[in-house]
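Re: Re: C-alpha cell formats

Sure, here are both.
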Amino acid sequence: MKELRDIVNAYHHACRQGLKTALATVVHVEGSAYRQPGAHMLITETGALTGAVSGGCLEGDALRKAQLVMLQQQPMLVTYDTNDEDDAKLGVGLGCNGIIHILLEPVNAEDPGNPVALLQEAVAHRTAAVLVTLFTLHHRKAPQPGTCLVLTANGQMRHRIPGPHLQNAITSDAHQALQTQTSFTKTYLTTGNDYTALTAYLPPVPQLFIAGAGNDVIPLAKMAALMGWHAIVVDGRPGYATTARFPEATQVLTSKSAQALSLVPVDAHTAAILMTHNYNYDLELLAQLLPLPLPYIGVLGPAKKLQRMLDELAEKGISISGQQRARIHGPAGLDLGAETAEEIALSVISEIQSVLAAAAATSLREKTTAIHPRGQQVIFQQQL
C-alpha cells in the first residue's frame, strides 16, 4: 500500500508540473520474477519513476514503451521473456528465469476514472480494498481496458468495465476476493474478446501502537514510517510525546495508561510494543491489550520482566489463554545481536513484519520453496 500511496503522490506532483504520465502494472508472471503481479510503477514523460516492476532490469525498456503509450494515449501489454535469448539480457542482473507481462496505461488527468484515480480510492482510507486490472493476455493488439475496478471494505466501488455481463462477473469476483482476502487471476471467455483480470486483494496498512516516547522510540517510529505503517506514539509525559520529536509518526498522544487505548482504534492489523520504561504503565496497558485482536504484543526488556507482569496479572484474577500468550513477544524482537536503539528498532520491526506476514523469520537460503507464493498465478476461466 505504501507503493500505491507514493505513486498517487508522485502523480499529483506530475500533474502540478503539467507532465504526462503512464502507469505500469505487472499483471502476470510465469516462472521467476523479482516483482509479483500487482506491482505498480508510475512513469512521467521526463523519465521519473515511482514504484518498480522489476529489480531494475526492465525499467529502462518499460520507460521507452511508456513514452509511446503517453504519445498514442493507448494502453499496451508488453511481454518480457527472460528465457528467450533475445530478452535474456534483461533479467541477467537478477537471474530472472520467467515470462513477465506488464500493462502500460496512459493516465488522463481529465478523466475522473483514470487508473491512478482508482488507486487513490484504494489508499484513501486505512481499510482493505480490491483492485482489478483487465487485459487480453494472448491478444496483445486487442483492446486493453486496464485498471477497471476498485472495491473497498466500506462498500465503496468505482469501475469502468466494458459490457454488463463482464461487469457482473468481475464485480462478483471482487466481492469474493475481499471476503476471502485472496488475490487471483481469471479469464472471462466471451463471444468477442477474451479478457483476463488480475483481482488483487490489498490488506489494510499495518498500524504500530508504540507505548513510550523515549529516545529509543525515535528510530522505531522512523522505521515504521519507512515501511509505510501508521505509527502511533503514546506516553504520559507531555515533554516527551511531541510531534517535534516524532515528525514521522501518524499520531503523537499524551495520555495516562488507563485512557491510552480509548484514543486509538486498534484492529487485527495493529501491532503494539510496550517500551515506556515505566513498569506500571506497561503493566496496565498489557492488561488492556490482552483481550483485543492484535496479532502482536511486544514487551521490551528481559524475560523476567514479562514473567513478573504475567504473574501480577494472574494475581489480579486476569486469566491469559494460550492463544493470548502466544501473541505476547518478550523480550521483543529477533535475535540480531542488537544493542543500539537503531539495531533494537530493526530487530522489533523485523519480528513484527514476520508475524504480520505469517512468515518464519529465518534466512532465505534455508527455504526450499519459492520466495513468493504463486497461488495467484493460476488462471481460472469462466464462460460468459
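Second one below.
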Amino acid sequence: GIDSWIKRLEDLIFGTIIIAIILIPMIIISLLVKITSSGPIIFKQLRYGVDGQEIYIWKFRSMKFDKDSANKFAQAKKNDPRVTKLGAILRKTSLDELPQFFNVLQGRMSIVGPRPHPIALTEEHRTKVYGYMLRHKVKPGITGWAQVNGRDILTVTDKVDLDEVYMQHQSFWFDMKILWMTFLKVINRDGVSH
C-alpha cells in the first residue's frame, strides 16, 4: 500500500543524499583496504531478504582474505585473528557497512529494518527462536531498532523481539528516530550492533 511507497521514497531520497556525502570517504576506505591487505575490496555474502529471497549484501572487507573459506560462515569473535587492523577500525565504527547503501538504491535493502543475518546463522536460529522468520516479512535494513538498543549484549531472542516492535510500529518518524540514534552512536564511536 501507500506505506510501502513512502518507505521506498524515503530510501531513495536518503540513500542518494547519504551516498553523495560518503562517496569520497568510501573511495579512501577502498584504497586503504587494497593497500593494507591482499584480496577484494568488497566482501559480498548471501543473506535472506524480504520473503526469504536470497540477496547479496556488500561490505568493505574487514578480514584477511581466504579463498578456500570465502563461502563458509564462522561468526567473528572478539579479538578474532582473521580481522585486519584496518578491519577492526571499520567494524568498530560501522564504516564497513557503507557499501550497503548501494543495496538500498537497488531496492534489495532498506536503510532501516531488521539486520539480515548470514544464511547459515538464519538456518540455525529459525528452529530455535520463536518467531525468528517473521523478520523476513519486511526488507532488511542497514540499521534497525535492535541495533541501536545495545551493541553485542542482546541475545538473538532480544533482537527478534525488538525487530517485531519495529515492524509493528514502523513509520517515517520511527525511522527518523532510529537514524538519529544510529548517527549519535557512530559519532560517539560506539558503532551499532550487528
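Strands lie at 42-48, 54-60, 110-112, 141-143. The helical segments are 2-36, 85-93, 100-106, 119-125, 156-169, 172-187.
- S.
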